[in-house]
Amino acid sequence: MRGFARFLFGRRARLRWIHLILGGALAMPYVFVGEVVLGTATGAMDFGSSPLQLASFAFGLPVAALTSLFPLTRPLEAGAVRWLCGVDADRLAYGPARTRAAKGRTAAWFTLHLGLGGVISGMSLAVPPFAVVLIVLPLFARLRGIGGWLPEVMDHTWALALAPVAGVAMLVALAGCAAGAGALLARWAPPLLGPAPEDRLAAAEARAAELAVRNRLARELHDSVGHALSAVTLQAGAARRVLGSDPEFVREALAAIEETTRRTVGELDAVLGVLRDGDTPGTAPAPTLAADLDGLLRRVGAGGPRVTATVDADPATLPPLVSREAYRIVQEGLSNALKHAGDQVAVTLRIEVVGEHLEITVENPLGDAAAYRPGGGHGLRGIADRARLLGGSAEAGASGGAWRLNVRLPMKGPA
């Protein structure tokens, strides 16, 4: 019983009733147009007559279906359905109807909304006053003769006793009709106002593009900031150990720290500029092998590790995309070697062109297992993602007492 009462008079039922009343209000201009057109055509200018009103209502619905082709109809109707009918937002489409099928579904929905809304609005105006009169009729005898609109049967005692029951039944029936019509609209809203397959495909492509941008920004932040923090930590530690014995080394380490942090702040500003709504990206250029390979090796070597680099390729001739991604791969490979193997190991870097591929190899001794730091794992995943996006491959693992990272990038970039 409580569930039935909630279905008739609960908050959702009341909101759906409001939605139907709005549909009736939207139908009124079309009804007026129908009255003018039909009244002029037939000569029946009695606008208060029921036949003319019904005919005008039937005439106005097709006109409403035509006006539903305006682009704003579906977004406005979808917003009203979401808030008043309780339909989940992801089951509705909020953009204008583009295809012929979507426009047809929107026209069908608009006609259904205005049709049911007009009927329920008319009932909501006519039924409550009559029902209230029936409810209070036994208490006010003079109401029985008003305008002669109550039947003579009301002069009988049994009819007066049943009049309040009939009035309450009429109100409950009105609530039931409104609740049923509201539930029907909520049931048909997703098929008629929901996204079509092409809308879902466009939304999925937009989400995939946004996710790809976010993943790229995450890789850039991880590689740039993570490498900078690892390099600065190693450089500061090395400078602290020889602070009193080798001032020249300390000056070089501090200079490397300054340069590393300055470049990283510029790169961080460029990446964060993409994340700020309405802000332009930073102007710091993306680092490449041609622009900063020597600087990268100098900054890494300032922290103490011995980096032996062999470059059998001209960085200036590499495609810009390959050069940029290769720089990040070298940066992350050296950062992983320093972070996990320590600053006293010898790191070997080799960059060469083999056929139509650029091969990058970073190798360092495993050394004492206690020197390795726990955690991590995102760097190698980011390297693999960068190689895969270019159509290349990446392999990493321990072999023969050394840790080896090997990456192959096609010179022509992704297909």
UniProtKB/TrEMBL annotation:
EC number: 2.7.13.3
A Pfam short name: HisKA_3
Key words, A-Z: ATP-binding, Kinase, Membrane, Nucleotide-binding, Phosphoprotein, Transferase, Transmembrane, Transmembrane helix, Two-component regulatory system
InterPro entries in UniProt: HATPase_C_sf (IPR036890), Sensor_HK_TwoCompSys (IPR050482), Sig_transdc_His_kin_sub3_dim/P (IPR011712)
Regions that span the bilayer: 20-42, 54-72, 108-141, 161-186
The organism's place on the tree of life at top rank: Bacteria
Catalytic activity: ATP + protein L-histidine = ADP + protein N-phospho-L-histidine
Cross-referenced CDD domains: HATPase_UhpB-NarQ-NarX-like
GO cellular-component term (any): membrane
Positions of the Signal transduction histidine kinase subgroup 3 dimerisation and phosphoacceptor domain: 214-278
Protein's name in the database: histidine kinase
Organism: Streptomyces luteolifulvus
